[in-house]
Design goal:
Layout lengths: L1 E8 L3 H19 L3 E5 L4 H7 L5 H8 L3 E6 L14 H12 L3 E7 L12 H4 L3 E7 L11 E2 L4 E2 L6 H17 L3 E6 L5 H14 L6 E6 H10 L6 E4 L1 H14 L7 E5 L4 E5 L16 H13 L4 H16 L2 E2 L9 E2 L2 H14 L1
Parallel strand pairs: 1-2, 1-3, 3-12, 5-10, 8-9, 8-10, 13-14
Antiparallel strand pairs: 4-5, 4-11, 6-7, 11-12
Bound molecules: 3-isopropylmalic acid and magnesium ion (MG).
The site of magnesium ion has 2 residues, from helix 9.
């Protein structure tokens, strides 16, 4: 049995997760899979009910399943809570508690959507790389941290084992792709980055078939928009990965398209990279493709069924080629459809394939 915990969350979260659940139902039927889906509260929805964003009950459920599917959390309603009560803090807690040390964000361009990007088609066409962001260390978690009336401070710190395991994942991922890994740091300024670089080079000895390149983060930000095709796999620290994965996501056209996987040695969580988009919540307008793509990543990474993942990507591609678009990716003259309609079309494609 494949045990999934679903966390619809806030804003458009419930709508896009409902779409993903519909796809899971189709796949269960088609491949005769025993899938159980248990829904839990997280984020603002949990705060309104229990006074906290992440309850022990939700956390326990996440620890006792094969994969977590998350919609989106947060919204204006909960923005003014104290720092430690905000949805962001709960997100960091769930990452840490589940040991999700790696965040995988593919930057892949669907041919049908090339015109939606802010980059020229000839620069973009053929772009397909993976950003691997370290997710449970670095400045996001380092101590001491705080602020008073006169100063604010955070600490960027990496332990050797933290760099080793993310570097290994970077090399392993590159081995399955074009065998090119770019490690991104700021070793010209930060000691912590020099340390990162040293360890990445040590781990490189285990993977001599992979070409390793070091790149400074400022240059990397430029290179991603200048010539995204040069990248195959990127591995980087938590904060740099936060920024670079948004840039990488945006060049592919729409944040509504991109899935992500956060994985650790025991647990995994899958979520679209977009936020809760409260302005369009409840209107049947949201783009469910990023969440459906996150289900594909789940089949690949948690269930070791890459062929099912491939079917999902194919079904998405076919629907896009048919000209169907949700509003966020539509141009003049496109066939603009609702969340339900595009989900039904992808389901139908999967049933037929
Ligand atoms: C992300 C988000 C989060 C992060 C926020 C919401 C805490 O930007 O997943 O990239 O900074 O990690
Ligand atoms: Mg971010």
């Amino acid at each position: 049995m494949l045990k999934i915990v679903s966390i619809p969350g806030d804003g458009i979260g419930p709508e896009v997760v409902a779409s993903a659940v519909q796809i899971l139902d189709v796949l269960a039927e088609k491949h005769d899979l025993d899938i159980s889906i248990e829904e839990h509260l997280f984020g603002g929805a949990s705060y309104d009910e229990h006074g906290e964003m992440l309850t022990d009950e939700t956390l326990e459920a996440c620890k006792n399943c094969d994969a977590v599917l998350l919609g989106a959390v947060g919204g204006p309603k909960w923005e003014n809570l104290p720092h430690e009560k905000k949805p962001e803090a709960a997100l960091l807690k769930i990452r840490k508690e589940l040991g999700l040390f790696a965040n995988l964000r593919p930057a892949k361009v669907y041919d049908a959507l090339i015109s939606a990007s802010s980059l020229k088609p000839e620069i973009l066409s053929g772009t397909d790389f993976m950003v691997i962001r370290e997710l449970t260390g670095g400045i996001y978690f380092g101590q001491p941290r705080g602020y008073d009336d006169n100063k604010g401070w955070n600490t960027m710190v990496y332990e050797k084992y933290e760099v080793e395991r993310i570097a290994r994942l970077g090399f392993e991922t590159a081995m399955k792709r074009k065998k090119q890994l770019v490690s991104i740091d700021k070793a010209n300024v930060l000691e912590c980055s020099q340390f990162w670089r040293n360890i990445v080079h040590e781990i490189h000895k285990e993977f001599p078939a992979v070409t390793l390149t070091d790149m400074y983060v400022d240059n990397a930000a430029m290179q991603i928009v200048r010539d995204p095709k040069q990248f195959d796999v990127i591995v980087t620290k938590n904060l740099f990965g936060d920024i670079l994965s948004d840039i990488s996501g945006m060049i592919t056209g729409s944040l509504g398209m991109l899935p992500s996987a956060s994985i650790g040695s025991k647990h995994a969580l899958y979520e679209p990279i977009h936020g809760s988009a409260p302005d369009i919540a409840g209107q049947n307008k949201a783009n469910p493709i990023a969440t459906i793509g996150s289900v594909a990543m789940m089949f690949e990474h948690s269930f070791a069924m890459p062929h099912v993942a491939e079917e999902i990507y194919q079904a998405i591609e076919t629907v896009l080629e048919s000209g169907m678009r949700t509003a966020d990716i539509a141009n003049d003259g496109d066939n603009v459809v609702s969340t339900d309609e595009i989900t039904d079309a992808i389901s139908a494609g999967l049933e037929a394939s």
